[in-house]
């Protein structure tokens, strides 16, 4: 027994053998506890999460399963080493490794958890998978930069580095960078504004100034349109949010104003006949709704009329087909009734 105590009290590299045994025992206890936690506890949690309707618990289990093995190894070694006397340099190295690994893992898990909520938030907008949208990637990039920067500062702070000056320098540098890339940042934040405010979406036909086309992609800096001619039109997001945008996809029907003239010699009876004829033609149309027709003004060489009707579709091709059908029917009806049109004033169709 004395021999056993003698062995326990034998000093090796500044520590008694019993201290090494205690450290080893603590290492085994922590390591086994982590193994039991990952295989038994997490396994049961995973089974329970599959029975629930929410996916939040599934995400939490996924995050726990995603923790790197090195994280458990470092924790299993770090705390047992507290029972041993080590040199200052060794202690600093062990502490530095512990801080770096723990903060790295916490930041990585935090990013995954925040991206989960971003994905849920972005998914409310469209049928498009959130990770395919520029908004998700833009917000995710901002979150990553913020969290990794915070993690880096925490590492330096825990290693004894005075980060006050560094934070001040980063603040000044951040302002300088922001001024240098303000146009890029403006376009990026404009893309967020487009996403949240939704003045248009992918697939919408829009007009911006004199340009128009179908929205094909909304990126972080630019939005791409496909014009009627087939080419790709690239517009900066900042320009889109600061301009007046017409979105034709939101339109359910189209209003048509038909201006025409009759010769001054036309009789009052034929004027009334012309109005009745136009009203009858439009009312017979399946995709048109008659609004009004009026003898609106006296021109220099003609009597001016204005007819208004609604095309009951937003489709441009159908809209043009209805307009053509109405115009042809009016022309044929006037010819049959002997009503002569005057073209001294240009005919305006809108």
Radius of gyration: 38 Å
Shape: rod-shaped
Number of helices: 11
Order of strands, widest sheet: 6-5-4-3-7
Structural class: alpha+beta
Quick overview:
By secondary structure, the chain is an alpha+beta fold.
Characterize the structure shown.
56% of the residues lie in helices and 17% in strands. By secondary structure, it is α+β, with helices and mostly antiparallel strands. The protein has 3 domains: 2-177, no CATH class; 200-250, SH3 type barrels, CATH 2.30.30.60; 254-342, Alpha-Beta Plaits (2-Layer Sandwich), CATH 3.30.70.100. Strand 3 and strand 4 form a beta hairpin. Helix 3 packs antiparallel against helix 5 and helix 5 packs antiparallel against helix 6. The radius of gyration is 38 Å and the shape is rod-shaped. Residues 345-350 have low confidence and may be disordered.
């Amino acid at each position: 027994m004395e021999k056993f105590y003698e062995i326990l009290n034998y000093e090796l590299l500044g520590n008694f053998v019993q201290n090494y045994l205690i450290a080893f025992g603590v290492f085994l206890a922590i390591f086994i506890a982590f193994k039991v936690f990952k295989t038994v506890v997490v396994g049961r949690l995973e089974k329970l999460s599959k029975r629930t309707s929410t996916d939040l618990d599934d995400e939490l289990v996924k995050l726990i399963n995603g923790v790197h093995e090195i994280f458990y190894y470092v924790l299993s070694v770090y705390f047992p080493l507290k029972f041993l006397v080590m040199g200052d340099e060794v202690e600093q190295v062990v502490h530095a490794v512990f801080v770096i690994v723990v903060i790295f893992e916490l930041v990585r898990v935090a990013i995954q958890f925040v991206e989960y909520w971003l994905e849920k938030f972005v998914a409310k907008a469209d049928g498009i998978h959130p990770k395919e949208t520029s908004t998700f990637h833009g917000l995710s990039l901002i979150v990553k930069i913020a969290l990794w920067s915070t993690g880096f500062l925490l590492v330096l702070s825990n290693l004894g580095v005075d980060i006050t000056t560094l934070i001040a320098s980063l603040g000044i540098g951040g302002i300088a960078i922001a001024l240098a890339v303000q146009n890029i940042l403006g376009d990026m934040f404009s893309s967020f504004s487009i996403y949240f405010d939704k003045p248009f979406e992918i697939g919408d036909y829009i007009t911006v100034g004199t340009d128009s086309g179908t929205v094909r992609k909304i990126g972080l800096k630019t939005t791409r349109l496909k014009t009627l001619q087939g080419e790709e039109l690239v517009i900066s997001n900042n320009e889109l949010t600061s301009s007046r945008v017409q979105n034709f996809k939101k339109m359910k029907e189209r209003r048509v104003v038909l201006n025409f003239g009759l010769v001054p010699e036309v009789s009052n009876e034929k004027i009334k006949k012309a109005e009745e004829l136009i009203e009858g033609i439009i009312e017979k149309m399946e995709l048109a709704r008659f609004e009004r027709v009026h003898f609106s003004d006296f021109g220099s060489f003609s009597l001016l009329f204005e007819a208004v009707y609604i095309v009951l579709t937003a489709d441009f091709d159908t809209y043009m087909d209805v307009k053509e059908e109405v115009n042809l029917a009016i022309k044929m009806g006037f010819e049959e009734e002997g009503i002569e049109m005057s073209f001294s004033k240009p005919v305006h169709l809108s």
